[in-house]
Design a protein that fits this description.
Length: 296
């Protein structure tokens, strides 16, 4: 029986790699999950596997304490494997079609309060070289909701201060216009005053945020800068540059902004991605009721 499973797994790996063109890591993850099933059912030929046997396998794994997301991936891999066997006419029907995916829920992103953001901004040492630059980066991330990659590639020529907009080149090379507020523009102005006194390489002259050697900043620098400032500000949350983007969207939502407008500013392809920001704490909902309902 084991030899039969090994042969089928070898063909399944080749199918995922060549016909489905999946990444190597994805292929090995799927094959690895099905290997766990093969080990569990080593005395059962694939054509005799039925739904109760699969449910028993998943039940045993759940008892070991594996996470919901791992369980969901296992179900997906098992379904895919048996679909392949049906396609290969090794079996007549897919016994995994009725396997239920665990309810994984949706993990809400970490969000900073306005007061926490102010503490991080205040933690920047403006007297040191690069201080005004770091403050401007934070103001732009929070004020515009940008991804860290969009911050590192932001160009001076794409800042339209008079109109109050910046042009962003986002995922998939898609452009969007995002409003930028006066505090962020003022922080950029102060930084550029400092930058004019340092050497700037001609090929990078239009890139807004540069290091002290005139090169574009790396994503790693911004990640580390955010971590260091959060620690300095006494904030215990596990945050990253993306936390400022989450906070931007959440604070707009709490302020009553339209979901479609937030989607456009964030550059989300689907409104469903933006809907995660509709989570509002109970106290905010309660205060909204008290402030606006005629019976409150």
């Amino acid at each position: 029986m084991a030899q039969q499973w090994d042969e089928l797994l070898g063909r399944y790996r080749q199918y995922l790699r060549l016909e489905r063109s999946l990444a190597s890591a994805t292929v090995e993850a799927y094959v690895g999950d099905v290997c766990k099933l093969a080990e569990h059912l080593r005395q059962v030929p694939p054509e005799e596997v039925d739904l109760p046997l699969l449910e028993d396998f998943l039940r045993e794994l759940r008892d070991t304490g594996i996470g919901l997301r791992t369980q969901a991936r296992l179900v997906s891999a098992i379904r895919s494997f048996f679909s392949f066997l049906v396609m290969e006419e090794t079996i007549a029907d897919n016994p995994a079609l009725l396997l239920e995916l665990p309810r994984t829920g949706r993990k809400l992103p970490e969000v900073l309060t306005v007061e926490e953001i102010e503490r991080i901004l205040d933690a920047v040492d403006l007297s040191r070289p690069g201080g005004h630059r770091d403050r401007a980066i934070l103001e732009v991330m929070y004020g515009c909701g940008l991804r860290v990659s969009e911050v590192t590639t932001l160009r001076i020529s794409n800042i339209f201060a008079g109109e109050g907009f910046v042009r962003i080149l986002g995922k998939g090379s898609k452009e969007r216009l995002v409003p930028i507020h006066r505090r962020a523009l003022r922080a950029i102005e102060l930084y550029l005053t400092d930058r004019r006194q340092q050497e700037t390489l001609p090929q990078h002259s239009d890139i807004l945020f540069l290091n002290l050697r005139g090169h574009p900043l790396s994503r790693v620098y911004i990640f580390q800068m955010v971590k260091d400032l959060a620690r300095k500000a006494g904030i215990q949350k596990n945050i990253s540059p993306h936390t400022f983007r989450h906070s931007f969207a959440t604070h707009l939502m709490e302020g009553g902004a339209d979901l479609r407008a937030i989607q456009q500013m964030l550059g989300h392809e689907s409104i469903q991605t933006t809907e995660i920001y509709t989570h509002l704490d109970k106290e905010y909902l309660r205060s909204t009721l008290l402030d606006h309902h005629p019976r409150a």
